[in-house]
């Protein structure tokens, strides 16, 4: 790794008049394998080497990046960035960073089985095994798309305040899109698994079992599914649904850069304002946290991309809006310290406020206890379609694997139950939280240019009272 | 070594090692972006990157990789790794090769503008003008980006293709706000700076924003909807993904088994044109080096073809449409042919309907059937007896993409060029009127 180059870049920017400079050097190697309808479509491996810099001059922020890793190129880019910052100063937002402790540290996510020690053959075999098991079900699955990817990233972050963090994070993910057909009707599911760590986690997922369970549930829903009841009823939302709910409406609106309007053009703003801190958004049973420190999580980090020590953030505490996600810029705006939520997906992206692993904390009930006193309800295990408006109020989740609950028991499958609800309605309807926490992986989209970043979202099953399902 | 020498070196070595097909692409891109919000520039960004991509097929085993270090040693290392990697890869029995050259290419008209290449810091002045224009119209806040890039792409293949294309791109977006709930957004894209009317975009965004003050909660039901080009482009972009032969095979398409069948109203004709003058997605050649062309995708509502590369075309017993994508064929510029109506004339055809100026977060319940929903944002207005009235909020379009396209009853005559956050592939479309659009909302 060209750490010297990053150190040089930071010093050179100061020499050229920068008030603050920061360099992030990235080295990533990756592998990916795609299988489509039982055929190994393609394999690939790749490398990323590059440097990204943030430079502040006269309270104007400039970002520059390159993968030409030589001093002359970097000197030119720094000079250009400073010139542009000077020109932009007539129209600039005044950038100030909160004062923070500068850390020097090095960390690595350990692997029991190194991702790079596993042959492509062995990785592809997992996909063939999944295909074989899918065929063995005898279920009609006209489209089967499965992919397996891994990457190992080492990044070195240094800044003009003395920060020096080196992190090595291996990451693996598995994605599928399955289409099941029955009586000329189809049903689909897309889902993803992802963790940081070694190949041991890929083995543990049991990919063949995951896809087989998925197609069995889809077929069962197609064969025996009934329309959901029209009257108001109770819903038990399982961890996958709770995960996406808290990510969309319990995580995104708490991003301080949205709150101050910085993402207004595309990713949107937030219905939450600074003044709403300490006010109620939901029932006391609701606790939502964002925590980058969960070992082997997809969104794991110990220091964020500004070198701030990561910690758990309580976004909603007992139903009260408690804390926002901050980087140093938004923290300064609100007169506080950063809580370590600044991330960028690659060297060529500016670090901005992001979630890491966002989930609802478990309650005291078992999932069975949530179900047992429901007279008429729906159990939604997972979903396919979902969306939310750009202020994070109006959201929709359409159940995939779902069942009717009658007199405390799970009954026949239900076809596409739709929860269409506002954020305050959602969190106020939660009356009980189970203790069966699960985490699920996704790539959260934000930023211009777009930077899809690995996150976990999750939680336990929850019970929502008196919900009218949509059409 | 320079990128040309490295490309030849890698190609030779791979062919000597037994590769059947090789494609080497070198992409050099210099770009800049100004991001602004609350009427101020948040950050200026610049990028200078180079990437060499390698595609190799050996005994139908397909492996892709890249190279960022242009030294001879790094090139030899990547070739060694590629040959080792391919040994344990599995064959793609359906793979049917790449295009055979040589080809001759035509220049893209209005594809390169020196003014964009030399714009530099002056981009800030454009942003300033746009913000000032929106504020002068009455907007309170603005947010957006102004992005400019110069790209130089070279292609070398084992099938006698040697090609190069240089292009510039300029993209501007502006979202004007009059309150937290009142906003308007416009985007513009061009290969030529003087064809991008930034101040006009700012004015239009500000006008929508001003009009959308004090929105009421919308109602659910079936409505006739006038879609601005921006939201209709979002729907067409999703249709474009469904047009790819790869999507058809992977289960990502509602157009499977639909060739020759009606997929849209007969008023709808959709062209994919990789040679479009000033087209944001125009390039001289596709990823295999085939000269791009004009393809009629939907002719008066009838689906004529999927988007193909050489390999998918052979599987579907047809010819490539010059839309490679090495794995997945993709649209270049999707053009919805214009109709006869002014926007005012579209409104006049609506007794009780909605005017939607933007949507976002389009997601599918089933790509195979085309069931989806999307969320209108920015100005949403009731249309009563042909006139735009009360702004509304809090609604969702929950529809089937084929039903929606079949229900287009009138097509506008003023096309706009749309690309952006959710419209990943460029779309050129006018406004349209669609009858009986299903609108849902959260229960009270």
**Can you tell me the overall shape of chain B?**
globular
The major β-sheet of chain B equals: 10 strands, mixed
Q: What distance separates the N and C termini of chain B?
A: 67 Å
Radius of gyration of chain B over all CA atoms, rounded = 23 Å
How would you summarize what this structure contains?
With 471 residues, chain A is an alpha+beta fold. Chain A has helices at 3-15, 71-88, 120-136, 199-205, 207-224, 239-251, 256-259, 328-333, 367-372, 423-429, and strands at residues 20-36, 39-57, 60-66, 104-108, 143-159, 164-182, 185-196, 233-237, 288-290, 313-317, 320-321, 342-343, 352-353, 357-360, 376-380, 383-388, 394-399, 402-406, 409-413, 418-422, 430-433, 438-444, 453-459, 462-467.
Write up what this structure looks like.
The complex is a heterodimer of chains A (471) and B (444). Chain A has helices at 3-15, 71-88, 120-136, 199-205, 207-224, 239-251, 256-259, 328-333, 367-372, 423-429, and strands at residues 20-36, 39-57, 60-66, 104-108, 143-159, 164-182, 185-196, 233-237, 288-290, 313-317, 320-321, 342-343, 352-353, 357-360, 376-380, 383-388, 394-399, 402-406, 409-413, 418-422, 430-433, 438-444, 453-459, 462-467. The model of chain A has no long low-confidence stretch (mean pLDDT 97). In chain A, helix 1 (3-15) runs parallel beside helix 2 (71-88) and helix 3 packs parallel to helix 5. By secondary structure, chain A is an alpha+beta fold. Chain A folds into two domains: 3-224, PmbA/TldD superfamily (PmbA/TldD fold); 233-467, no CATH class. Chain A has ten helices and 24 strands. In chain A, strand 1 (20-36) and strand 2 form a beta hairpin. Chain B is α+β, with helices and mostly antiparallel strands. Chain B folds into two domains: 3-210, PmbA/TldD fold (2-Layer Sandwich), CATH 3.30.2290.10; 215-440, no CATH class. In chain B, strands 7, 8, 13, 14, 15, 16, 17, 18, 19 and 22 form a ten-stranded mixed sheet that branches. Chain B has a six-stranded antiparallel sheet with strand order 3-2-1-4-5-6. In chain B, strand 1 (21-37) and strand 2 form a beta hairpin. In chain B, helix 1 packs parallel to helix 2 and helix 4 (123-137) runs parallel beside helix 5. The model of chain B has no long low-confidence stretch (mean pLDDT 97). The interface between A and B is large, with 88 and 87 residues. Strand 3 of chain A pairs parallel with strand 2 (40-58) of chain B, so a sheet runs across the interface.
